[in-house]
Amino acid sequence: MDRTVKETEALTKILQTLFARLPVSVEIKGRSYPAKIVGLKDGVYLLASLPGKSDGEKTRILFLTHNNHFFHGVFTVVQRNEGNGLELLRIQAVKVSEAKRAQGRVDLEGGGGEPIVLTNIINQLHLRRSLGFIDKIVEGILQKHSKKMKETYPDSLIYFSDRMDNRLRIMYNFEQSIFVTNRLERSSGGAGQNFVPIEEYLKLLALNKIESRFVSEISVLIRYKNYTPLGYVQVLSDRPMDTEDYNKITLFAAAISRDVISSGFFQESKERCMAEDISRSGLGFFHPQSIFFSRSFAVGEILLFDLQLNQELRGTYRAVIRNITNTDKMFRIGLQFFNLNSKEEEMLNQFVDSRLGPGEGSQAPESDVQGSGPPSEEGGGAAEGSSSEMETVSEEVPDMGFEGEEESV
């Protein structure tokens, strides 16, 4: 049943409904790594942030699984930023085939040892939507932290909203904070490759002007458990700020996130759910029927949850729902991990290594390719300004309507 799609209209539909919205991987030297799709342009171009340094590849292989099908996309590299891994890719063809499980799993049913428990489950899309209904408790938390920040940084603010302004959007797309020591010094005013490039920052100021007396800015994302952005903390200064300032402002952002989550504002599941099996790429768990389940669980939706692997290994994970099966008493949900934080990925590998053996059950062996570098654009490249022209990637995941049963994850 393998088939290859080359028609432009069909390729555009696949890009819009799958590659721009589902977890995507890239093949590098025969190994697979997570890729971040930043935007979609003209129906046939993807702007992608890819891991590691480029070897001058002229083509890229991106792939994903959906509804029991494997989508293998062949792309031409049109433009590239050698420094930070941002590439503009044009789709050439997509091969569609039946998806098959290739990784070993740790079966937890009937075995000894501690159970794996999922708690505080929340739908990522609902998490963002809830920011549009901030209550008095959250307002009080924001006001408290704003007052405390202004004692040290008078020209500061907290942006906390379900809507992305231009500053939040650029930090989200680049997955970096803004740290500009002196905006008047284009060549040396940025704080390095770990932050939004000063060229992009100056483009932002062309749209959102600041008072001329300010020369330095630090803006740090407020994240839900180091994943989904909730807003940001912004500090402006008429003097160059340094690393000490950045560390203080980062602590402010972390404290805001912690206090908002602790307030119970986000509607997380109260269930303690037991996992049935787990691998390096996903897991299966059981959840009872409830109003929360009906509202939050659907194939293609993205979940965030706390996962306790054992007494020592516990973290927050992100995964997409691949299938839902109705058992006699509860529903079994199959998940696929994607774009995990390095700490959680290391814990997961440590656990699987302890149960299956080092490296066993891996889809691809380890590589010296570094983690995904933050995307940026070269000042004189043809892709300059393309991020502002790109469509915002939706977090909603539609069903493509292919026939066939869901793959058991």
UniProtKB/TrEMBL annotation:
Give the top-rank taxon of the lineage listed in the UniProt record for this protein: Bacteria
- Acidic residues: which segments have biased composition? 392-409
Q: Which Pfam families match?
A: PilZ
Q: Where is the PilZ domain?
A: 268-353
Query: Which Gene3D superfamilies does this one have?
Result: predicted glycosyltransferase like domains (2.40.10.220)
Mention one GO molecular function.
cyclic-di-GMP binding
Name the chain's protein: PilZ domain-containing protein
Region entry Disordered, spans: 354-409
Species for this entry: Leptospira dzoumogneensis
